[in-house]
Amino acid sequence: MKADALDRLRGTLLGEVLGPRDAGYDTARRVYNAMIDKRPAVVAKCLGTADVVHAVRFAREEGLPIAVRGGGHSVAGHGTCDDGIVIDLSLMRGVHVDPVRRTVRVQGGALLGDVDRETQLHGLAIPTGQMSETGIAGLTLNGGVGMMLHKHGLTCDNLLSADMVTVDGELVTASADSRPELFWALRGGGGNFGVVTSFEFRAHPVGPMMLAGFLAHPVERAEEVLEFLRDFNATSPAHLSADAVFTHAPEADFVPAEFQGMPLVNLLVRYFGPMEEAWEAVRPLREFGPPLYDSMGPMPLVAVQSMLDPFTPAGNLHYWTSEFVPCLGVEQIDALAALGRDLPSSLTSINVHPFDTAATEVPPDATAFAHRQDSWLIHVICQWLDEADSERCRAWVKEAGALLKTFGLGNTYLNTTSEDEETDRVRAFWDERRLARLAKVKAEYDPDNVLRFNHNIPPATGESAVGERATEEPAS
Ligand SMILES: Cc1cc2nc3c(=O)[nH]c(=O)nc-3n(C[C@H](O)[C@H](O)[C@H](O)COP(=O)(O)OP(=O)(O)OC[C@H]3O[C@@H](n4cnc5c(N)ncnc54)[C@H](O)[C@@H]3O)c2cc1C
């Protein structure tokens, strides 16, 4: 970049522009996972859509590749890059609820907690993830798995429209009626197509009170717990979410002192239906075992959605993997129990989520999100504090991932992978036919692959493209 380039960008942005010589650059370049240490040429903290347009145009003039940062939670580090521009939306966290239409407009840098705070004022919620500090943008564009999956599907299944700035700086709207191919691609195709400045979601009446908590069992009983969860899940109410979580009991108020630090398999239970039915709905879960301790109790939805935050603070070292497995049979349960008894650090967890009902009832071709099969999502979250443990922890996760693959569906959930996930495995998520369709949308909206810090979809070549940009008016 020429010496005066940053000043030129500063002149066009209301937000902040930080280069390597600026105080604040080191904070601005940091992302959630401390394993990721990238040095962008510039971080543009945008204050609105116009800032995004100017930042994108600047990137094109300077020939800089673009990384887009929403909430910064990508464990693969996709929200930053070396030597390019980071278009950082962390100042764009506005949420506007229309309680009559039950729709919610969310800016591209909003966190899940921002969304819950505003929607809950109206007794509404969007199905999102399970921690309050994750960005809505990255989560939605690659799917969005949380406690309402059974009842309301993935986050992207609840998307109604998205406003996006293209890599040429054009503002477009994608919805079922406007640029339908782009709308299809944004629901599972990741951050490949442009910078999404706002999302419009369908919301559902939920809360404000829910029943939630942990039912803790000794890890020695993991096989029984997983069998119980499998059988219970087959007929459980749609408003109930129950996952198994292998972890060490944290030093937290809800954990009796004698169990703190103990390896456990927990049932993480959340019931978000009518409160008068709640205790009866969770009764079989509470009676099983009995648990070592039971922290179930009524809580506001916003508290439930942030109760896991203290266990995964920003700045730890992370390496993750995941795999969809078709069923919890003897082979799968034995393998998961063995992994769960051998966690490589006290902060590591393995989450076993049922993936079914509403999420699998969406027709497979309705969105770019490719996995619509009844299954279990096994998510290995390895985190540690000391760099000296990095090699050992990564090796453990790689081995765990290889084991999961032996009985998995060959599909991973792309929001939960690490930076070196094999390209073949990423491609396999979308399958060749879907990938060809995504590549055409990519060719239309980002033919030069300027947005390549993501699970990248190379643009189609040849006749390429889907032709919807030429035929439609730009959004007003
Ligand atoms: C602690 C923790 C908890 C999590 N819990 C869940 C969970 O419960 N459920 C779940 O499904 N996932 C969960 N995830 C995974 C999460 O969905 C991904 O990490 C996701 O990428 C986070 O989005 P972000 O905006 O915070 O990420 P960022 O790092 O900011 O962005 C990641 C990528 O998303 C794209 N992107 C981001 N913003 C935009 C935008 N505005 N326009 C275009 N592209 C954009 C870009 O490609 C970017 O590189 C969790 C992650 C963490 C770290």
Automatic annotation (TrEMBL):
<dbReference type="InterPro" id="IPR016167">
    <property type="entry name" value="FAD-bd_PCMH_sub1"/>
</dbReference>
<dbReference type="InterPro" id="IPR050416">
    <property type="entry name" value="FAD-linked_Oxidoreductase"/>
</dbReference>
<keyword id="KW-0274">FAD</keyword>
<keyword id="KW-0560">Oxidoreductase</keyword>
<dbReference type="GO" id="GO:0016491">
    <property type="term" value="F:oxidoreductase activity"/>
</dbReference>
<feature type="domain" description="FAD-binding PCMH-type">
    <location>
        <begin position="35"/>
        <end position="206"/>
    </location>
</feature>
<keyword id="KW-0285">Flavoprotein</keyword>
<dbReference type="InterPro" id="IPR006093">
    <property type="entry name" value="Oxy_OxRdtase_FAD_BS"/>
</dbReference>
<dbReference type="InterPro" id="IPR016169">
    <property type="entry name" value="FAD-bd_PCMH_sub2"/>
</dbReference>
<dbReference type="InterPro" id="IPR016164">
    <property type="entry name" value="FAD-linked_Oxase-like_C"/>
</dbReference>
<feature type="region of interest" description="Disordered">
    <location>
        <begin position="456"/>
        <end position="476"/>
    </location>
</feature>
<dbReference type="InterPro" id="IPR006094">
    <property type="entry name" value="Oxid_FAD_bind_N"/>
</dbReference>
<dbReference type="InterPro" id="IPR036318">
    <property type="entry name" value="FAD-bd_PCMH-like_sf"/>
</dbReference>
<dbReference type="GO" id="GO:0071949">
    <property type="term" value="F:FAD binding"/>
</dbReference>
<dbReference type="InterPro" id="IPR016166">
    <property type="entry name" value="FAD-bd_PCMH"/>
</dbReference>
<dbReference type="Pfam" id="PF08031">
    <property type="entry name" value="BBE"/>
</dbReference>
<comment type="similarity">
    <text>Belongs to the oxygen-dependent FAD-linked oxidoreductase family.</text>
</comment>
<dbReference type="InterPro" id="IPR012951">
    <property type="entry name" value="BBE"/>
</dbReference>
<protein>
    <submittedName>
        <fullName>FAD-binding oxidoreductase</fullName>
    </submittedName>
</protein>
<dbReference type="Pfam" id="PF01565">
    <property type="entry name" value="FAD_binding_4"/>
</dbReference>
